[in-house]
Amino acid sequence: MTSPLDHSPHSDNIQPSAQRMPEAWNASSDSPSSAQAGKVYSSEYAESREQSPSTDAHRVSSEEQQKSQEREHNEQEVHKEIEHTEDIPLELTATQERAPETACLQDRATELGDNDQTEPFAHAKYGLAAVVGIYLMYQFAGGALHSLSRRYSSELEIVLQGLGQLLFMLMPAVLIMRYSPLKIQGLMRFGGEVTIGQWICGLMGIVGIQVFDAGFIAVQERLVPSFLMPLYQQLRVWSDMVEQYYRTSFSGTTPLEAVRALIVGAVVPAFAEEILFRGVLQRSLEEVYPLRRAVLVTSVLFGIVHFNPLSLIPLILIGAYLGFLAYYTQSLALPIVAHFVSNAIAIVALYAPSQGLSASPYGMPIERAALLLGIGLLTVIGAYMVIRYMTPRTPPVRT
User: pTM of the full predicted structure?
Assistant: First the structure.
């Protein structure tokens, strides 16, 4: 039986090659070295084929074992750190957490330097100490100068009185401004603008206060209870002494004496007292207190230092009105002029008796006194309202 390959068209080609292969093998096997080398190579190749799968598997298993050991080592280290952290007190842990924040704060404090360590400036203490100290100096030094002038003439006495206000009130008030953070520009309220409406209303208000004063003195005398009348009489004597002193100093019979009285009794006090009270004191208090409290404290001290107990309420009203003028205009120009007008009216009233005129409010009919009081009070209130609400540059009110 013949195979299908025997009848294949390619069987003739295959058969000779199959017959040549043994011949080549036989020819090559005739050399002993070649046969031996072939056997060695064949054996090594077989062994490498047999050992290759096991070597690869061993290498993979060793790498996995090394990775597993590294993971176990890392887990042990993590457990050790956790155990160490649990042993630390909570306070220490919180301190460590706040350490960066504390370091930042310390660096900030170092950058700021001594500015944060200094206490805020005591504006109220500065203003009060300045007014009390300057006024005491004026009373003692000015009093000594006034006593010295009595040895000569009354004309020199009034001149030295004005000089005492310049030397011991105005100049110290200006010099002490350098110790305030506001400096002279802030305390003197430089830069403020006074409108025409403020000028008119401000001066009308100060005239209204003088009208109120005339009616108040007459009404006050009739409203004093009987059990307070002895005290009132003593205060009346004191007030008469003060009025007599001013009348002796500022009254006269000639125009030259009137001009001298206006300069010493109106011009110099207007500048000195406004710079001291509305400048140094009230402006310093405005940095600490609301506006009304600052004005009230300043006006009460302003009334007390004039040593006229029966006119204390009108003096406080004048001080408060001038304080509001200074605040709403942000300037001392209008308060100084209004103060001058107020003192000038008082000097004219002192000058009137020497001319045969009666200017004393005592003994005035109660109806007339009440009318003057009401007109003066309404004038002051109206002027204040207009200046506060109808001026173009009204500062914000601190309450």
Answer: 0.68
